[in-house]
């Protein structure tokens, strides 16, 4: 199976963009989306996140945080993350506003609540094409190191899916082998466009 379009989705700008960046470098046609109401980045404290609207360019966020406290945001990894993000795409996009335009072969979520939101959204759409989409959840902790691990695992899964003639017939075996090899639980569901 040739994956035409892959999509990664999370509630933040770290995990999905790390996977987007890696999959793009490996030649996959990939898109990334957030599912929250706003883009939230760590701030000076847990009660003071930096909040931006979807569509705000990463470069604008980067410049804003440099002005606020360059040392803090460099030390906590936010500035390098935004620099990476700006090299991948212009600005964050929201699933609920933009994903209806696409028809993806596989959708990755990196936390269960995002997986549930994506499935609910797909379920509530009108199924015109009756084309299958595989929705996978791979729980990944929200830190830079785990985001890199999650991206590599998502790439491995994409390569496994591409190596099979029919993922629909082989998905159970692919998931079982992955879980055994990596000792990570996967959730998956099949939905339609």
Descriptive labels:
193 residues, alpha/beta, five-stranded mixed beta sheet, 7 helices, 7 strands, 48% helix, globular
Question: How does this model look, in words?
Answer:
Helices cover 48% and strands 18% of the residues. Strands 2-1-5-6-7 form a 5-stranded mixed sheet, sandwiched between helices.
Q: Count the E strands.
A: 7
| SSE pattern, N- to C-terminal | EHEEEHHHEHEHHE
Helix fraction by DSSP (H/I, runs of at least 4): 40-55%
Arithmetic mean of pLDDT: 90
Shape: globular
Largest sheet: 5 strands, mixed
> Approximately how much beta-strand content do the residues carry?
15-25%
Spatial separation of the terminal alpha carbons:
18 Å
Helix run count: 7
**Strand line-up in the sheet with most strands:** 2-1-5-6-7
Radius of gyration: 17 Å
Model regions low in confidence, pLDDT < 50 over at least 5 residues? none
Sheet/helix structural class: alpha/beta
Provide a concise account of the structure shown.
This protein has 193 residues and is an alpha/beta fold. It is built from 7 helices and 7 strands, in the order βαβββαααβαβααβ.
Q: Which helices and strands appear, and what pairs or packs with what?
A:
Layout: E1 6-10, H1 15-25, E2 30-34, E3 39-41, E4 50-52, H2 58-75, H3 78-88, H4 95-98, E5 106-109, H5 112-124, E6 132-138, H6 144-163, H7 167-182, E7 186-192
Parallel strand pairs: 1-2, 1-5, 5-6
Antiparallel strand pairs: 3-4, 6-7
